[in-house]
Amino acid sequence: MRRRIPVREVLAGFSIVVALAARASLAPASDHFWSDLGERVPKAQNLPDFVDLAAKLSPAVVNISTEQKNPRNHLEGETPEDAPGPSTQPFENYGAEHPRSLGSGVVINESGYILTNDHVVEDARQITVSLKDGHEYRARVVGRDVKTDIALIKIDAPYPLPVAPLGDSDELRVGEWVMAIGNPYGFDHTVTAGIVSAKGRFIPGNYDDFIQTDASINPGNSGGPLIDLHGAVVGVNSAIYTHTGSSMGIGFAIPVNLVKRELPQLRDSGRVTRGWIGVEIQDVPPEIGLKDGLDENQGALIAGIVDNSPAKAAGLRDGDIIVEFDHHQIGESQQLTLLVGDTPAGRTVTITVIRDRRARKTPITVAASREEEAATSEQSDVTGRIGALVSELSPELVRERKLADSDGVVVSSVAADSPAQSAGLKAGDIILEVNRHRVRNVDSYQRELNSKGSSGITLLLVRRGKHTIFIPLR
After folding, report:
1. pLDDT in tens, 394-440
2. 119 catalytic per annotation
3. Active site residue: 87, 101, 197, 222, which one?
4. pLDDT tens across 453-470, in order?
5. Claim: this prediction has a pTM higher than 0.70
6. Among the options 87, 104, 118, 119, which is catalytic?
7. Distances in Å between the alpha carbon of 424 and those of 202, 261, 346, 378?
């Protein structure tokens, strides 16, 4: 006798078959142009608890107020709405003859050595340090370094001070939690937290390769510590990127490993002496990189060489591209600056340069920095055919710009929507070379401009302010 199968069992079985068929037909593996998760990753951990870290390290963080020698016409670090950029804590002007600056610092030695930003104590006629326990002390500057914006100050307390240990900023990873403690807008010992947003950020005009963080940093946090979850200082908060003067979630801290290399010099001599080879450099424009056979834009393009410098003695030339320094590959030009600066004076290293599509290795002996000297190369400028008018250098302009001679032409004006404007040429620029040929006056400038090569690109060497730069012009 055959068993009767209930209708609901038949329907259930049919549903399973249909579901399996539908799953197979909806997304065949061969049709995927994306990646599926596969195995599920563990859920993210709960937010870290910063309570113990704050309690342990806050006593080592100090508030710094300074009375400035000279009044300022504007708040330090103000950024116009039409020119957003990184800014540091502003000075608070109370209407007195000498305005005040507010900042932060961190105690790194129980005898009273305090780490802070150079701009916090710059031009200070009096520095007052306030501890978390309520005591206040006058501080003196032990050492300063403008290029890294680091200063070492000291107070004389009658008892050992709580200290924050210094960590290893090289071990930081993007996405890692960090905590900041400081004095934003005068609210002492404010604790904020966030993550490491990026590493190796370069801000024009600065020496550091900054740590970027979204921990809330505001004016007054300058000089305070950035702390990892191990309770170690991994950075010194230095700047914020802002349209309004307040935190926008983009803050920058000086890596503590860079600071640690400077501290002995700041303590012993009051300043930092860096390695120096005497070149002005810039990133390699794509047009020049392709012309010189580089597969990608890498290296540092030499735009000027100081007379009687190690670079001059080594036979380097304007237009050389330094792609390796002491066995370190050069990506961005700023990397060369950091590598040279960290090299002791008197040490001879090997560098690799690209010249005429050939790699050349040459020894160079690093000297002590002579940062007050600029490259002595001169520059020149453009004509109407490229959308720029040029004129001869007058004796007055030569004296005003402190030029070595009157070779070159000065850009009088740049037409809107012209090749010159697109390339970034500006009125007041001085054109020194066209396609690696020296320009002596308007006639030689026009002659070189008319004899440009078949590549369709004219390479100008331009002096702008104290610096020389290459500008590729289509």
Report:
1. 776 777 777 877 788 888 777 766 788 788 888 788 998 888 888 88
2. yes
3. 222
4. 545 678 888 988 878 888
5. no
6. 119
7. 21, 37, 39, 18
